[in-house]
Amino acid sequence: MLKHNREFQLVYRKGKSAHSHALxxxxxxNTPDISVGFTASKKVGNAVKRNRAxxxxxxxxxxxxxxxxxxxxxxxxxxxxxxxxxxxxxxxxRKMAAQAGALRT
Length: 105
Hints:
The protein is of the alpha+beta class. It has helices spanning 5-14, 47-64, 86-100, and strands at residues 16-19, 23-28, 34-39, 71-77.
């Protein structure tokens, strides 16, 4: 789990990114394990919406974790993350992971 700002900044600076209408994925293949961080800014909404967005991203990441390569991941919520159906989030995450080169073949 990424916890410190410097860890997030390293992934932002050196990692690959992929965007969708509801999420942003940053991936840095630097470690033998999978580490992940989730962020939701105040643009997403109040604390309730930000926490809901992070819960949805956590569930999404854990569902895809067996399919992902080792490395550091950061998922960033957008304002629509809370409102989009979960199936749409799954499809967007699969596409973003493939674009970033993070899916196992």
